[in-house]
């Protein structure tokens, strides 16, 4: 029996097409499973953590942003700041005072102090409580600034 070359080529192409289709279907199924896993993990993270943006303005024209920083629910601004930077602070009976961030310290002689601001309605608003008392909310943007009076 004489085999036609086109029959052999067609058979090889058919086997390749079936294999490629099976591989693509498997890849699709794996990617869908991974997407479901990612979605489930995101919901778990959203239940135990919030995402905030924290900026540090060193008063010399340098501002460093720590965007999309995940912190635990219930953390204060002081907790978040100590997570992203080296913070020097003093604890008083009325609350905690931040003296320095990343080696840049307040300067009472020059009347420069670390203050924090929150971004709201297109404006920066001075924080109304100490950093140890301010609970951060999901999506919030906060900026520390070495402010001169």
Describe this structure in words.
It is built from two helices and eight strands, in the order H-E-E-H-E-E-E-E-E-E. Strand 1 (49-57) and strand 2 form a beta hairpin. It is elongated and about 100 Å long. The chain has 149 residues and is of the alpha+beta class. The strands form two sheets. The chain has a five-stranded mixed sheet. The mean pLDDT is 94. It has helices at residues 5-48, 77-84; strands spanning 49-57, 63-72, 87-92, 95-101, 104-105, 112-120, 123-126, 141-148. It has a domain at 49-148: Ferric Hydroxamate Uptake Protein, Chain A, domain 1. The longest helix is centred in the N-terminal third of the chain and has 44 residues, at 5-48.
Please render the helix and strand layout as text.
Blueprint: H1 5-48, E1 49-57, E2 63-72, H2 77-84, E3 87-92, E4 95-101, E5 104-105, E6 112-120, E7 123-126, E8 141-148
Parallel strand pairs: 1-8
Antiparallel strand pairs: 1-2, 3-4, 4-5, 6-7, 6-8
């Amino acid at each position: 029996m004489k085999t036609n070359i086109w029959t052999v080529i067609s058979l090889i192409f058919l086997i390749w097409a079936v294999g490629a289709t099976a591989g693509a279907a498997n890849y699709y199924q794996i990617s869908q499973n991974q997407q479901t896993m990612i979605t489930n993990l995101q919901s778990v993270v959203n239940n135990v953590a919030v995402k905030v943006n924290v900026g540090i303005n060193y008063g010399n024209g340098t501002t460093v942003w720590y965007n999309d920083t995940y912190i635990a629910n219930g953390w204060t601004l002081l907790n978040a700041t100590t997570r992203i930077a080296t913070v020097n602070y003093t604890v008083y009976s009325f609350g905690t005072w931040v003296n320095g961030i990343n080696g840049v310290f307040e300067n009472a002689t020059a009347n420069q102090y670390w203050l924090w601001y929150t971004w709201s309605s297109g404006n920066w608003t001075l924080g109304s409580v100490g950093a140890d008392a301010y609970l951060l909310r999901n999506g919030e943007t906060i900026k520390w600034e070495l402010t001169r009076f």
